[in-house]
Amino acid sequence: QEPLTASMLAAAPLKEQKQLLGERLYPLIQALHPTLAGKITGMLLEIDNSELLHMLESPESLHSKVEEAVAVLQAHQA
Amino acid sequence: NSNINWPPEFCPGVPWKGLQNI
To answer: Do the interacting molecules here have an ipTM over 0.90?
Structure first.
């Protein structure tokens, strides 16, 4: 699967842009947190698309955002 | 407008409704 680029994203209807990002992010997040992947992806999709694109290219930034999201999620559920 | 269901869960292959439900 070819990498998702800003121009590919911009070519998609606004409503589908988060969907496209989610489809790319979910498998990466699932590898880190199999049970919480859906919720974490849902949380991260609230972030700006440009930052989400960056996270797709940068495992480090993805990991750090995922850990942040897990902490928020656990605090929320507590 | 309870936040019990927050965050919305992303399911691959299912159209994302996201924040509409919050």
So the answer is: no
